[in-house]
């Protein structure tokens, strides 16, 4: 859990409606890579912790008997259920819970996945709970975007979103320290998941990178949605200045691209896996 920060229910308040449009997808093929690496065959159960609107679990559900998504944000779970209906995924269910609530009477799982959510948790406590609910030989999966491209990319066909200017604008409205719910992240969010998982008793670390490389054509509305899908610029943080902020945000975007169109390269997806020892119950 981030230093000096305490979780509260407003962390992603109001963000769910913007996720589908605003967030870039994980690299195509991430689900197939996981399935091939772990030998997934339609058996066993999947748990997605901090599932948000179901992005990962809905892509993976076909490789399991059942998928369970947990998230403390009811709006995220409602959006996940809508997405499941739209995609005709019938073997996923949704539970309002925090990672710290595990095992939460949910039973055992073959795979437990955290997609850019583990850093929000009490990691040592949660890692121990995940070890408990995994079946012997089961897998803890941590997914995130690769921040740096492996090779010099080709020029984009349109201007890139002006992320530095957007960050400056957010700071002008919300202050210099990153916001998160009712608190702030003075030192950012923690990393070194490997140390946490080793302390918990996981073994046999694996790392895979699924390349993306495609270029996404984005509109100003897409970038606005991205801003409002984030915990550090969630709509509620702006209070009665929300309309002013959006007006200024759109002005920043228009200055960067008068046609309100942008391009950005999809990031590769990093998948890290640790396994529960086979002999451990």
Please give a quick description of this structure.
This protein has helices spanning 16-22, 30-38, 55-60, 74-87, 123-133, 163-174, 193-200, 220-228, 242-256, and strands at residues 45-49, 66-71, 92-96, 109-115, 134-145, 178-180, 183-185, 203-210, 215-219, 261-265, 269-275. It is an alpha/beta fold.
Main attributes?
Methyltransferase, alpha/beta, 281 residues, Rossmann fold, methyltransferase, transferase, 7-stranded mixed β-sheet, 9 helices, globular
Which overall shape is indicated by the principal axes computed on the Cα atoms? globular
Strand fraction equals 15-25%
| N→C terminal distance | 27 Å
Strand order of the largest sheet: 3-2-1-4-5-11-8
CATH architecture: 3-Layer(aba) Sandwich
Low-confidence stretches: none
CATH class: Alpha Beta
Give average pLDDT, whole number: 94
Largest β-sheet summary: 7 strands, mixed
Q: In which range does the helix fraction lie?
A: 25-40%
Number of helices: 9
Keywords: Methyltransferase, Transferase
Domain Methyltransferase: 47-138
GO molecular function, one term: methyltransferase activity
Protein name: Methyltransferase
């Amino acid at each position: 859990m981030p230093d000096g920060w305490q979780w509260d229910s407003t962390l992603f308040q109001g963000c769910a409606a913007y996720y589908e449009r605003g967030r870039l997808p994980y690299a195509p093929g991430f689900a197939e890579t996981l399935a091939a690496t772990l030998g997934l065959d339609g058996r066993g159960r999947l748990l997605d912790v901090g599932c948000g609107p179901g992005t990962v679990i809905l892509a993976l559900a076909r490789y399991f008997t059942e998928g369970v998504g947990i998230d403390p944000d009811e709006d995220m779970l409602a959006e996940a259920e809508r997405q499941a209906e739209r995609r005709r995924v019938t073997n996923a269910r949704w539970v309002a819970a925090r990672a710290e609530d595990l095992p939460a009477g949910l039973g055992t799982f073959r795979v437990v996945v955290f997609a850019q959510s583990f850093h929000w948790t009490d990691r040592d406590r949660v890692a121990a709970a995940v070890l408990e609910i995994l079946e012997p030989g089961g897998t803890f999966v941590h997914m995130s975007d690769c921040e740096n491209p492996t090779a010099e990319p080709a020029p984009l066909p349109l201007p890139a979103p002006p992320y530095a200017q957007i960050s400056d604008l957010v700071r002008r409205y919300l202050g210099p320290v990153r916001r998160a719910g009712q608190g702030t992240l003075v030192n950012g969010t923690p990393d070194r998941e490997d140390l946490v998982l080793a302390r918990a008793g996981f073994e046999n670390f694996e790392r895979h990178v699924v390349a993306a490389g495609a270029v996404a054509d984005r509109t100003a509305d897409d970038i606005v949605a991205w801003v409002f899908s984030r915990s550090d610029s969630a709509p509620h943080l702006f209070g009665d200045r929300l309309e002013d902020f959006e007006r200024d945000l759109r002005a920043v975007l228009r200055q960067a691209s008068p046609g309100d169109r942008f391009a950005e390269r999809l990031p590769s997806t990093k998948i890290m896996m640790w396994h529960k020892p086979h002999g451990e119950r």
